[in-house]
Design goal:
Layout (H helix, E strand, L loop, with lengths): L1 H17 L12 H17 L7 H15 L12 H14 L5 H14 L7 H12 L6 H8 L6 H21 L9
């Protein structure tokens, strides 16, 4: 799984570099290369189903699949992946304290952008997880800096990620009941 994760990070680094202003010196991926890379990574992720022993590993595997769904979205529309949504929710909720803050940040934001619904019961458990694992002093700039260490395509995810980040901060704060975070 580590090799697949690193391949996905490398793929996103290539995409981020090719879409930046300094991309004149970076060869762009041809359509077939882009499609072959995505298909290869997705196939390898799918082959890991039922082969991972850690809840955190399975959460990351499902997050990688959810992440890939964002590369297939039509602007303004989001397809429903019911099985992925259910499994990812189940494993994210079970991950608990096992995941470092950075991993929890990535899991929750990928979930919010790809499969979870901030206007449903997802908002409650996501806000609880956010409050428990994401330091209150992190703002979007700090979160974004940490997210860039994970699979993240700036041109696709920055705006949606900021919206999800702000919504989760707000929901975590509002559901806190004024108690403040215990750290």
């Amino acid at each position: 799984m580590v090799a697949i994760f690193h391949d996905l990070v490398h793929f996103t680094v290539l995409l981020n570099a090719s879409s930046s202003d300094s991309s004149r010196h970076i060869p762009l991926l041809r359509d077939t290369e882009y499609q072959n890379l995505i298909c290869s990574i997705q196939y390898r992720i799918l082959r890991l189903q039922d082969k991972l022993s850690s809840i955190l590993d399975e959460s990351v595997r499902l997050a990688m699949l959810a992440f890939l769904t964002t590369t297939f979205q039509v602007a303004g529309q989001r397809a429903r992946y019911f099985h992925l949504e259910r499994r990812f929710r189940e494993f994210c909720r079970a991950t608990g304290a096992e995941a470092p803050s950075e991993v929890t940040l990535w899991l929750l934001l990928v979930g919010a952008m790809a499969v979870f619904h901030m206007d449903s019961e997802d908002a409650v458990w996501m806000a609880e997880s956010w409050r428990a694992h994401i330091p209150a002093e992190w703002d979007w700039d700090e979160g974004h800096k940490r997210l860039r260490e994970f699979p993240w395509i700036g041109i696709l995810h920055d705006e949606a990620g900021r919206v999800a980040f702000d919504a989760l901060c707000r929901k975590a704060r509002d559901s806190d009941g004024g108690m403040g975070r215990l750290r």
